[in-house]
Design a protein that fits this description.
It is built from four helices and no strands. By secondary structure, the protein is an all-alpha fold. Helix 1 packs antiparallel against helix 2 and helix 3 runs antiparallel to helix 4.
Amino acid sequence: MKVEALLFGGVAAFFAGAAALYGWWSRDPAGTAALVVAFLMGALVSFFCAVQYRRKGRRPQDRTDAEVADAAGPLEFFPPQSPWPIVTALGFAIASTGVVYGLWLFLIGFGVLARGVLGMVFQYARRQS
């Protein structure tokens, strides 16, 4: 993660410099704000990668002498089947159609969409690891 932290730190530094120069020369608040947000996003990812590197140390991907099997770990739980992606897609389709045909259809679609998202989020909430 150290390399990734440095890479995104460079991206953040570029956007910080670009935001400073652009803001000073153009006096455009919208473009400057967009560049500042880009700087903040790069800095956030860089900070996350640096914290992960300090917590967990070097990964097998960071070593030149590592084997492929060194990076293999236990497989996580994968759900066998779920109806909630279909409910979510249907809700999104109804809500999108509701934007064209009226608020009543949008609200129905939003309700179906919310139920589908909540179903996916809490589907395995009580599952024992």
